[in-house]
Design a protein that fits this description.
Strand order of the largest sheet: 13-14-12-15-16-11-17
Structural class: alpha/beta
Radius of gyration: 28 Å
Number of strands: 23
Strand content: 15-25%
Bound molecules: adenosine-5'-diphosphate, magnesium ion
Distance between the termini: 33 Å
Number of helices: 23
Mean pLDDT: 84
Length: about 675
């Protein structure tokens, strides 16, 4: 009998070939398969007669093929199939591009269901490239249809058929890990129903029940995981740090710290003196000066005779931190080193050896710091910067490492307090709610795309003054299911270089580039070897180029508020007045409101709250950059109340059964999650 760990190729009706295709999506087991949730849904329930079809309306039509389909070759690589379909009320001309097989498969006299956008006039109705299926054998018309995230070579139909097979194969064995009493108390549907309806919703109500159930389960497990993590940590004893005179550090700084920075430092130092490992999240808006909080902790730790490590999510950030911090800390007698993926092997070896021998006090780097064979003589503190790149899994794994260093996590993603409390139960939270004095807010404007010429002129003017510019484009291309960021970015950069700014240097960077290439581009931009950087949101995190004074965001409505705020935070970091220009033609009232919020306020926490209010946590989570560990719920949607319920349920359960003896299924899931987390690190 099948279980959830069964490989998909053994599932009846899937077979080797399809299994290979699914593997490209990372779907290996039955569990992966049924857990591959739709990204969205298309309501294809509306069925109309041809006469009823309104212009521009999306609908299903059931019609008979009246003539043999005609194929015409338009140009190279472009064939058009034309079909005339009729029902009792009228005629519909249907065209398909490059689907020549339809010529033979669409039978004259047969009745088919077409789903697509109606075009044309009242007397001449058309549909271009609709979905088509024989009537009576409908899979993807006449119902609410799931739309899955895809990759090349796997179609929606293959996926939804495979998932259908998968669900049929495991309907009987799906484990309901939620205890019955919890399910009843929070009125959650059974797991089988949930999986069935998340994939093939009977109705909107059924879909919403399914979502609610799956979201609850995920958050429930998440809460239990965090609680346990915290309990594990609290049980750990470490030698308390001694007090250190911090004056030497403070007076080495070129500025005085803000009260908020001082408070965060005090809180962190108190943790390190307490005798249990520090687990602190330091949240502060972009530019609030989190690095100095880290530096103070590093100083404190090293003066206590232990080593400190600072881990950044990218090479460029690591290098930036190293440059700044070594300049500050070396003169204070702290021996610093840099260790990243691109450090030459020989140097890496030498640095590792010195770390192991205790000849380096402070090392800055990327993942390389904790994963490879790097050993420390006496690691006392791990700081991770921009923690949203490291999920709860990594946190768990790090905590599970034998050494129990103090950990400080710095996040530039303001998360509304209510959410932070729920989501970071395993961490203590410090908030830097104050910016260093004298910052000039970034002037922010929302404009339609007809302003492009003016925007370009403005960039040119600033470039003439010696400034640099970022231009961010969204990753949208014609093919929405498979956005190709590479194409969008390179194409736009090329146009700008050739047509708009032939005399300036335009560079580009996108997420598909190798880290080394990315770094090279960023480094060149930081050194002002290029003037304009076209990119996707890869630049949203942490990068510090004080000379960049303008951030242009194309299709700004495609981004979440918090993400826009992050992007805006890339400018206004130097002494120059900086600008953020949000370009959008979207006239939707809510969208306009959102962009208006950006223009109106510079406070990241307010923006995050507004984001939450306008879009709800479902969408808020949907932005992976919010630091929430890859919860699939991202795509499922949920509300704050549900989050709280799941949290309460988890706490109640742990209160009466701390070792989860009554729910082996939950306990088993936890073990699995922790093991995965450790695996993810190694
Ligand atoms: P973030 O919180 O975004 O990581 P950084 O630590 O990069 O912010 O600090 C942003 C800039 O502000 C840096 O150039 C830093 O030197 C400067 N800075 C930090 N603290 C202060 C302060 N108290 N007064 C003036 N400038 C400061
Ligand atoms: Mg930072």
């Amino acid at each position: 009998m099948a279980d959830l760990g069964t490989e998909v190729r053994y599932v009846k009706g899937i077979g080797e070939q399809r299994a290979k295709a699914l593997q490209k999506l990372g779907i290996l087991t039955m569990e992966d398969l049924i857990g591959w949730f739709p990204r969205r849904y298309e309501d294809r329930r509306a069925v109309k007669t041809i006469a009823e079809l309104g212009a521009d309306e999306m609908a299903c039509v059931s019609a008979m093929i009246a003539e043999v389909p005609v194929v015409s070759h338009i140009r190279k690589g472009m064939d058009l199939v034309k079909v005339r379909a009729v029902d009792a009320t009228g005629v519909l001309d249907v065209t398909f591009f490059n689907q020549t097989w339809l010529k033979t498969s669409l039978q004259r006299g047969g009745t088919y269901v077409f789903y697509g956008r109606a075009e044309g006039t009242q007397n001449r109705k058309r549909m271009a490239s609709p979905v088509v299926e024989p009537e009576g054998k409908q899979e993807v018309t006449g119902r609410i249809v799931p739309v899955y995230p895809l990759t090349a070579g796997v179609s929606q139909l293959i996926l939804s058929r495979s998932i259908r097979q998968g669900l049929d194969a495991c309907a009987e064995i799906l484990p309901d890990i939620l205890p019955d009493d919890i399910r009843q108390k929070y009125q959650l549907c059974r797991i089988g129903y949930a999986y069935e309806n998340i994939h093939f919703p009977e109705s909107e109500e059924a879909l919403s029940l399914a979502r609610r159930r799956l979201a609850f389960e995920e958050l429930f497990l998440f809460s239990i995981g965090l609680r346990r993590l915290r309990q594990r940590k609290e049980a750990i004893q470490v030698p308390p740090c001694k007090d250190v005179d911090m004056e030497a550090f403070y007076s080495a700084l070129p500025f005085s710290l803000t009260d908020a920075q001082r408070r965060c430092i005090d809180e962190a130092l108190a943790d390190m003196r307490s005798g249990t490992p520090m687990n602190r999240l330091c949240q502060g808006d972009v530019g609030s000066g989190k690095t100095m909080v880290a530096a103070a902790c590093v100083y404190f730790c090293v003066k206590n005779g232990r080593q400190a490590a600072l881990m950044a999510p990218t090479e460029i950030l690591a290098r930036q931190h190293f440059a700044g911090l070594a300049a500050l800390l070396e003169p204070l007698g702290i021996r610093c080193a840099l260790l990243t993926g691109s450090t030459p092997a020989k140097e890496k070896k030498a640095t590792s050896a010195r770390l192991a021998a205790g000849e380096i006090d402070f090392v800055t780097g990327t993942h390389a710091l904790i994963s490879g064979g790097v050993e420390y003589a006496s690691l006392g503190l791990v700081v991770t910067d921009e923690q949203h790149r490291f999920g709860v899994a990594q946190r768990a794994a790090l905590a599970a490492k034998a050494e129990h260093p103090h950990t400080l996590v710095m996040s530039a993603t303001p998360i509304p307090r209510t959410l932070a409390l729920i989501l970071y139960r395993d961490l203590d939270v410090s908030i830097i709610d104050q910016l260093p004095p004298g910052r000039r807010p970034v002037e922010t404007y929302a404009v339609p795309s007809s302003y492009h010429p003016r925007v370009y002129k403005f960039i040119r003017k600033l470039a003439a003054e010696g400034r640099q510019a970022y231009i961010v484009c969204s990753q949208v291309t014609e093919n929405e299911e498979q956005p190709d960021e590479r194409k969008a970015v390179t194409k736009y950069a090329k146009t700008l270089q050739e047509k708009v700014f032939p005399d300036l240097k335009v560079a580009f960077v996108h997420g598909k580039m190798k880290p080394k290439e990315k770094d090279a581009v960023m480094t060149a931009f930081a050194a002002h070897e290029t003037d304009i950087l076209v990119s996707t949101t890869v630049i949203e995190v942490g990068v510090d180029v004080p000379n960049a004074a303008v951030m242009v965001v194309e299709d700004a409505d495609r981004f979440g508020l918090s993400q826009l705020h992050q992007l805006r935070g890339r400018v206004g970091r130097g002494k120059h007045q900086s600008y953020c220009i949000l370009i959008s033609d979207n006239k939707n009232e809510e969208t306009r409101q959102r962009l208006h919020v950006m223009a109106k306020t510079a406070d990241g926490f307010k923006i995050a709250e507004e984001d939450l209010r306008l879009r709800g946590p479902g969408d808020f989570f949907g932005q992976r950059q919010h630091g929430l560990p890859g919860l699939k719920i991202a795509d499922l949607g949920c509300d704050t109340k549900l989050l709280q319920d799941a949290q309460t349920a988890a706490e109640d359960l742990l209160a009466r059964d701390p070792d989860l003896e009554s729910c082996p299924a939950v306990s088993g899931r936890m073990t699995q999650l922790f093991t995965q987390a450790e695996g993810a690190l190694n």
